[in-house]
Amino acid sequence: MPVIAFLAGAVLVMATLIDAFEVVLLPRPVRRRIRLNSYFFKVTWDAWAWCAGLWPAGRRREDFLGVYGPFSMVMLFVLWAGSLVVGFGLMQWAMQGLAPGARFDTLVSQVIVSGDAFFTLGYGDIVPQHTLARLLVILEAGTGFGFIALNIGYLPVLYQHFTRRDLQLIEFSARAGSPPTAATLLGWHAHGTTEELERWLRDWEIWASDLIESHAVYPMLAFYRSQHEGHSWLGSLAVVLDVCTLLIAGADDAQRHQATATFAALRRILDEASESLQVPPAHGAPPRRLDAEAMCVLVATIRRIIPRWHDDDGALRAIRLLRATYEPRLQGLAAYLLLPLPDWINPAMAAERFSRDAVVLQLTRGRPD
């Protein structure tokens, strides 16, 4: 029995330290599916999402879902600390028999001693009876110091990535509206030039590159919802993908170059997020609405930017093929994360062809439509 307890404690300690190292220090994604934090996020998010489903869609449910991201990290740290304390406690309990005639304490008492050593409280009520046990206490105390220091330094890095992601969404909302749509975004750029739209897409390619790195290494960022109501990293990504799809399908070769690069970068975000969260594509779900009315609005709007944009059968077929490469991933992640996906147009403002923000921009420039 002591041998089994010692091995179980050693395995628990090693598994926890490896998991913490991969999450906090390793600057690359881990493809191994058997991980302590993966099971933790799977179980806790499923329970949290089920509780959120008891409320109707609205602000209260969004506020509840928004708590999960930061709270889950606190609970993950608690899980790691508890696993280490229990693991070292099992090892200490198993090693008591090495000292002849030593007092044999209960497992609960040894776990308490382990917690005393891990958090360096220094009560000293129970003292190890032999050299190996004392060395184990020193090792646990050092592990506790390092564990706490790493976690303190980890949170600012995590929030730095979250802040960079959210700042881009604030700028995006001013152009694409709330809720965002591809028609609104194109309407904002309708009074600019093609070069301005390409520069804007270049900025989103850079944003996508940063997101690929952060969401691959820190997949828990996907659970962090935007601090501003109506903003969503997944919804914004969907709108930019929609715009890139239109440009690639109907623009000339020279005008689709940047859109192709941005499209590829954004689609890779979906692949990385789906793989790290182990979310399969939603192949059976119906695609987002893109009927004849929506196409009329989109064609009229995009031709303000690219007068020679094609809307023939070849372009429509290209739109369907391009959508098939990202819609299943989008819908799978949206269903899993409970994030709504935007429409292609805003039905309430379809007649205007662009959002309220675009109208304000026209009036300020003195160029009403």
From TrEMBL:
Potassium channel domain: residues covered: 118-154
Keywords, alphabetical: Membrane, Transmembrane, Transmembrane helix
Acyltransferase as UniProt keyword: no
Transmembrane segments: 67-95, 107-124, 136-159
Keyword Transmembrane: yes
Superkingdom of origin organism: Bacteria
Pfam families, per database record: Ion_trans_2
Name listed for the protein in its UniProt record: Ion channel
Organism of origin: Variovorax ginsengisoli
